[in-house]
Design a protein that fits this description.
The protein is of the alpha/beta class and about 525 residues long. It is about 30% helix and about 25% strand. The strands form eight sheets. A seven-stranded mixed sheet has the order 25-24-21-26-28-27-29, with helices on both faces.
Length: about 525
C-alpha cells in the first residue's frame, strides 16, 4: 500500500486518509475518491490531499476484518458486517464466554495492523452482548500478513457456551450457632446468582453438620438435580472435614479442596454419580464476586472444572484485600489505641423531631452516649454530625470530643461511617461505633465490646441481647477500607456475613437493642433510664 500526499488532480481512485469538509458535504476518512470528489476538493482550494492506494498484494481493511472475524468466531457467536476495518462479534445465546487466550496472543503477534480484543474468559453474557472485536488498523494489509494470522487460528477461538444446567440442589448444614435466618438469606443470595442462567433450585434442605447425614442428603438431592451446592455451617478446614468426607461417603470423589482465589480459598469440588458437588466457601453467602462464582458459572455452562484448572486460577485470583487472611492469627492481649465514633447525623424521620437532643434522665440523649464513650477505654471520641449540627454540638457542650460534619448524611448511614472512620486518629487499631440514640449503653458496655476484639481471630465484636445482634459494634482497623467502601444505610452489615468466622458476640443485655427510633421507643428508654437512676 502506498500512503502519502498527492496532487488533488491525481487523487481519483484512491482512499481518502483524513476527512475533508466541503461547502456542501464532508468526505469521510476511508472514502474512495471519484473524479467528481477530486474536482470538488480542488474547487475548495486544496492543491493536494493525503491518500492510500492499494497494491496488488493488499487486502482491503473490511475484507480482512471480516475474514479474520469469521475464523475467530465459534459456537454461540455472531459476526457483524465489517465497516471501517472493524468487525464486531456478538453473543447469540445467554451463557459464558470461552476464549483461547494463547491463540489470541499468537494472532495479535503476527502484524500490528491486525488486532483482536475479547472479553475475559468465562464472563457471563446475554444475547446481543459484544464479546470481541477485530480491528484492521490501516486501510489495507498485506495478503501474507492476513494469511499468517489466519494460519494462527486453525479453529474458532472465541465462543459462548450456553447455560445447560437447569436443576440445582442447595443443602445447608446446621449447627446451634447458625441462625435459620442466615441459612434462608444464603439461599436467597444463591437463587439470585442463578437468576441469569435459567437454573432453579429444585431441592433445598437443611441437615445436621455431620458427614453421614450430609452424605444421605446429597444422595437424595442428586436424584432430581444436575448439580449440588453445600453451604456449611462451619468452614471446611481439612480434606477430611464434613463436606469432603460426606462426598466420599455418598460414593463420590473429591476433585479439589482449596483454591488460589481470595475470597474463596476454602472451596471444595467433587462429584457424586458423575454430577458436580460444590462445597461453598463462607464468602458465597455474600452476593459479591468470589472464587465460588468462578467454579459455579463454568459448571452451569456444562464446562468441566478440574483440580489443575483451579490450581491455575491464582493470577487474577486476588479479588479484594480481605482483612481476615493477609495477617497472622492473633492471640489475646491485643495492644493498640482505640477510638469511639458517635453517629449523630440522622434526620430522625420516624420521630418527627430531632431525637438526639431529646432529654433522657435530665440530659440530651446524645450526651449520654458521648459521655459513655468518653468514660470508656477509648482513647479518642469522634462525633459525626449532619442534620442540625448546631443543636447536636450545643447538647455536647463542654465535652472533649472531636466533631466531623457529614454533608452527605441524607445519602445513608454509610456516608457518616466513612466520615467518622476518616476522622479518627491514624494510630487507632479499632473503632467502636455507637448510635447517638442509644443512651442506655454504658461505659462498661463499651469496654466489654472493645474487649471482645481480643478474642482469637476476631475482627468484629458486636453487642448482643440474648444472642441477637445489637449495638455498639467494635471493628478492627483491618476492616476499615471495606467499611469505608459500603454504601446506603447498610453500614457494616454486609461485611458480617463475609467475615462470619471472625465475629464475636458480646452480651450486654437490653441496652444493645434499645434505640429511640419512634416516640414509643423513646418513652420506653426514658422509663428504663428512670428505673436505672433509682437503682
Amino acid at each position: 500500500m502506498r500512503f502519502g500526499p498527492v496532487p488533488v488532480g491525481e487523487a481519483a481512485g484512491a482512499i481518502l486518509a483524513h476527512s475533508q469538509r466541503l461547502a456542501d458535504r464532508t468526505l469521510k476518512k476511508g472514502h474512495h475518491l471519484t473524479a467528481a470528489d477530486a474536482a470538488a476538493l480542488q474547487a475548495s482550494g486544496l492543491t493536494e490531499v493525503t491518500v492510500a492506494r492499494l497494491a496488488a498484494d493488499d487486502v482491503h481493511e473490511d475484507e480482512a476484518a471480516s475474514a479474520l472475524a469469521q475464523t475467530v468466531g465459534g459456537a454461540g457467536v455472531r459476526v457483524a458486517k465489517a465497516d471501517t476495518g472493524r468487525a464486531n462479534l456478538f453473543a447469540e445465546v445467554d451463557g459464558l464466554v470461552t476464549v483461547d487466550a494463547a491463540a489470541v496472543d499468537a494472532l495479535n503477534a503476527v502484524d500490528p495492523a491486525l488486532t483482536l480484543a475479547t472479553l475475559a474468559a468465562y464472563k457471563r453474557v446475554a444475547v446481543g452482548r459484544m464479546v470481541g472485536t477485530v480491528k484492521v488498523i490501516p486501510f489495507a494489509v498485506r495478503r501474507a500478513s492476513l494469511d499468517g494470522a489466519l494460519g494462527r487460528v486453525p479453529r474458532p477461538i472465541l465462543a459462548v457456551a450456553p447455560w445447560t444446567v437447569t436443576r440445582v440442589a442447595a443443602l445447608s448444614t446446621m449447627l446451634p450457632t447458625l441462625k435459620d435466618s442466615v441459612a434462608t438469606k444464603t439461599i436467597r443470595t444463591f437463587a439470585a446468582r442463578l437468576a441469569d442462567t435459567g437454573a432453579e433450585i429444585v431441592h433445598d434442605s437443611r441437615v445436621a453438620h455431620e458427614a453421614p447425614a450430609l452424605a444421605r442428603s446429597l444422595a437424595e438431592a442428586l436424584r432430581t438435580s444436575e448439580l449440588a451446592v453445600v453451604f456449611a455451617a462451619s468452614a471446611v478446614v481439612d480434606e477430611d472435614d464434613v463436606i469432603p468426607e460426606a462426598i466420599r461417603l455418598a460414593g463420590g470423589r473429591v476433585e479439589r479442596f482449596g483454591m488460589p482465589v481470595d475470597p474463596g480459598n476454602l472451596l471444595v469440588l467433587g462429584e457424586v454419580d458423575g454430577k458436580p458437588v460444590i462445597g461453598a466457601p463462607g464468602c458465597a453467602r455474600s452476593p459479591k464476586e468470589n472464587g465460588f462464582d468462578w467454579v459455579l458459572d463454568r459448571l452451569l455452562a456444562g464446562i468441566a472444572v478440574t483440580g489443575a484448572e483451579i490450581a491455575g486460577m491464582g493470577v487474577g485470583g486476588l479479588l479484594m484485600e480481605t482483612a481476615a487472611r493477609p495477617h497472622p492469627r492473633r492471640g489475646k492481649g491485643r495492644a493498640g489505641k482505640t477510638a469511639a465514633v458517635v453517629m449523630a447525623a440522622g434526620r430522625s424521620s420516624r420521630m418527627g423531631a430531632n431525637k438526639l437532643v431529646a432529654e433522657v434522665a435530665g440530659k440530651p440523649m446524645v450526651r449520654h452516649v458521648a459521655e459513655a464513650a468518653l468514660a470508656s477505654r477509648a482513647d479518642a471520641v469522634v462525633v459525626v454530625t449532619g442534620h442540625e449540627p448546631e443543636r447536636v454540638e450545643a447538647a455536647l457542650e463542654g465535652l472533649d470530643v472531636r466533631y466531623v460534619h457529614n454533608p452527605h448524611y441524607a445519602d445513608g448511614l454509610s456516608t457518616s461511617l466513612r466520615a467518622g472512620l476518616t476522622a479518627i486518629p491514624e494510630d487507632a487499631e479499632a473503632a467502636l461505633i455507637l448510635l447517638g440514640d442509644m443512651p442506655l449503653v454504658t461505659s462498661e458496655d463499651c469496654d466489654k465490646v472493645l474487649a471482645g476484639l481480643a478474642e482469637p481471630d476476631t475482627l468484629v465484636a458486636i453487642a448482643a441481647m440474648d444472642g441477637a445482634r445489637g449495638n455498639p459494634v467494635a471493628w478492627s482497623r483491618r476492616l476499615f477500607p471495606e467499611l469505608k467502601a459500603t454504601e446506603g444505610d447498610a453500614g457494616g452489615r454486609a461485611l458480617l456475613s463475609r467475615y462470619g468466622d471472625h465475629v464475636t458476640m458480646v452480651e450486654i443485655g437490653r441496652a444493645a437493642a434499645m434505640d429511640a427510633d419512634t416516640p414509643e421507643a423513646l418513652s420506653a428508654i426514658r422509663s428504663a433510664a428512670d428505673i436505672a437512676a433509682q437503682d
